[in-house]
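dumping this here before i forget
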Amino acid sequence: MTINESSENYLEAILILSNKLPVVRSVDIAEYLGFKKPSVSVAMKNLRENGYITVTKAGFIYLTDSGKDIAEMIYERHAFLSAWLESIGVDKHTAAEDACKIEHVISKESFLAMKKAIKL
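structure:
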């Protein structure tokens, strides 16, 4: 199954929040991404149905192995691309925004070649 950009962003947000908070809840994701809770609830239902997350009865959200793999891939791309753009003179805010767009469309082959060619 192909995962869409929105789902990748949610998974990345869960990963980031899980490294900062003891537990992640829908309200945390909504606040972090600036979305309304009902939108996040629909996204969490879809991610759960596709096997990317589990949700406890208490509402705590955890990445499954496949969800974590995707989240870590997207986060790695984002961190690398942001750092590279900043290193060539792009301001931090613009670099982060552009990295967020690029991270979803760049091929695995191109990203690996960039990592090999650019030592940060």
